[in-house]
Amino acid sequence: MENTINLKGITWNHSRGLLPMVATAQRFSELHPNVNISWEKRSLQQFADFSIQELAERFDLLVIDHPWAGFAAKTKSIVPLNLYLSPEYLKGQEENSVGQSYESYFYEGHLWALPIDAATPVAASRPDLLAEKGLQLPQSFDDLLALADKGLVAFAGIPIDVLMNFYTLCCSLGEDPCQNDEEVVSTETGIKVLKMYRELASKMDKANFNRNPIQVYEAMTLNDEIAYCPFAYGYSNYSRNGYARKTLHFHDMISLDGKTNLRSTLGGTGLAISAKCEALEMAAKYVAFVGSPACQSTLFFESGGQPGHLAAWKNEEVNRQSQHYFRNTLPALQRAFLRPRYHGSMYFQDHAGDVVRDYLMNGGDEIQVLTAMNELYQKSKSLVLS
């Protein structure tokens, strides 16, 4: 009789984060009766903040965010998956990456997690509310401001999301942030972005500055006050029948220049294996199962997941069940900006959003905001592993 293998996993607390992992673990155990996989969950904020090094001490499987890739490469707290998954399998994954999702976990010659979930900020709407008020989807920043003047617009305003949207506006004005070691973005672009962003933010309900994307979508579906969100990490769950009180439609974002849509900052999650895992081969088998096109297009999606495999994003049935969420937002994923992943980048990400959020809420001097961000950035660049 085979020895029983017990694997413990940690993911994040949302239907999109937990349910597909539980469902795939259950099915994998049915196919491999000697394997038990249990999943625990943590909050979205803990998911962004909590060190994967500490989690890897306690769990065999980790659902992680790609900015941890540089940290993982330094600490070796998770294993390089390219040592455990076949070259053929990985080639298929790379060729079917949703935007730069695959590349986002590839760092210093190794793949540190498999992209099982793909996301970027996209636009969301309540078509019923817009129709009721005789309004169209905004196409330009001016359209967006006009809709915000009616009190119908929200965006996620907690620090991490504010920073990601700052990146989005920089990219959309033609300058990707964090491209040299001295400054986050040029003073000229930085001032322009902050002023635009502040103009929009000044028309927002202050409650939005305490909301992450999930809380924005809950507010949009539980009440009938918010008709449009211009950018927040997309959640296909809210576009599925029966998930929420009202169904959201998701779209590509507005254009600043009338030609090119906003370029947002890539998100999504990857499945990683702890270096402390004692059943590496079996854990890798499970990772490969979860990331396979067949699982991603069926069991993973149908259990609430937001796939990371391109075959699922193009799948007719997946799109039929989600108001064409995947087809409609794929262009945004394909052009999304890959944010910094160097060791130390998490320090910057954890602190810079506070500076921008404070400015959005209270106003202030743009030069001072940019100076404070640059100081945090330079400090993050100089961080060494203790």
UniProtKB/TrEMBL annotation:
Any Pfam family: SBP_bac_1
Localization terms from the record: Periplasm
InterPro entries: Bact_solute-bd_prot1 (IPR050490), SBP (IPR006059)
Highest taxon, organism lineage: Bacteria
GO cellular component, one term: periplasmic space
Entry similarity comment: Belongs to the bacterial solute-binding protein 1 family.
Protein name: Carbohydrate ABC transporter substrate-binding protein
Organism: Pedobacter alluvionis
